[in-house]
Structure prediction request, 174 residues.
Amino acid sequence: AMDQKYIHWCVDFARRAAARFIAGVDNGEITMEDLFDLDYQPVPGSDPAQHSVRYLAFTDEVLPEFQEPILEKDEKIIFCAAVDVNGYLPTHNLKYNHPQKPDDPVWNAANCRNRRIFGDRTGKAAGANTRPYLLQSYLRDMGGGNFVLMKDLTAPIVVKGRHWGNLRLGYKPD
Prediction:
């Protein structure tokens, strides 16, 4: 019951993000082929490793309007970000979406969380989830040996019958 409001917000925002993706396809902003691109291209010199895909310009433009407002709803919410089926996070919240600093992987791990594939157990499950929602607890690696206990809630983003990924909502447990 204590997680109910977060579940409601996550499912609602995932549905709205999916509707925006569908509108983008319908109005020609992006093709289905590009939206479902899984050909991750390494960003040279990135540490931790970042990747680009063909839909980055689109998600950079449209996702903040869904991902940013939810951060204001509750002080326990740490992040809200869409991930694809493999846990790839194209466009993070603005506070984690900074350009990487060369030779500073610790700062990058905490502040440049966009364009990364989160292939840990929690990240993989978050991307692959097809249930109405999935709630997990995990230790979030913030770099430099700093871990934070988090609840991770995901709800599917489905575009024209195809599972694109999930909206991930991370928040502090009570």
Summary: The first strand starts at residue 41 and ends at 42. Strands lie at 41-42, 51-52, 77-84, 88-89, 116-117, 134-141, 147-159, 162-171.
